[in-house]
Amino acid sequence: MGLVEGRIAVVTGAGSGIGRAAAEALAREGAAVVATDIDDDGLKATAASIQGAGGKVLTLHQDVTDEAAWDQVFEAAEAEFGTPSVLVNNAGIAIAGAITDYSLADWQKQMAVNVDSVFLGTRAAMRRMQEKGGSIVNISSVAGLRGAAGASAYCTSKGAVRLFTKAAAVECGQMGWPIRVNSVHPGIIDTPIWQKSITRMTETMNADQAAALTAHSGANQLDVNAIAAGNTPMVRAGRPEEVADLIVFLASDRASYISGQEHVIDGAMTAR
Length: 272
Description:
single chain; alpha/beta; Rossmann fold; seven-stranded parallel beta sheet; 47% helix; globular
């Protein structure tokens, strides 16, 4: 029997990277998965992978910043599989740039996708999980634990996810609801999400600034393996599947007394 056998899991940003790996891992461990994204082609590939392995999946186009869409996602999940007991708030973006050149519009977009969506998803899940319980896993970053030049908005958004997660966990506990809420903080993970952002960031900096960003941002770089080798004690980038395994653990009863915690998965990058 799988670690999450018979459960229903909603995973946002499931069209690629960590989101896809999480959806696949949850399905492999017995959950029926509701995979959402704005990337419809990516969702098709995710669904094909899960179905090809014999798993259950429903794909939905979702803008995670749309408040009404969250009720629609949970209603569709309930109609197809039943009430979700797992939510993975994974969808996110990175808009890079120096603070002095950063626009308010970009700042607000960064917060809407990375912070507002986590609030909306967590709220929707908490409203439905109060009786039977569940697990909410919010994907933050090592950038939510320390600062990085050129990534002020991203760091701010991921730091907000970290503390919102803690507050939500405390609230669930004090209300007597059997809902656990945890955050996951990946370091340098080999996914495609960062390429455009890091390119934009380094193009606006001199060589020394770009080198400093490369060393400390915790984001995937243009050559992720080379960057990981130079900045991670384990001398390699992480794999989305490794993050997914942590997510599955937190979603399962194996983590029954773990809530309100930040779980760093970075090859010891932030340990020094």
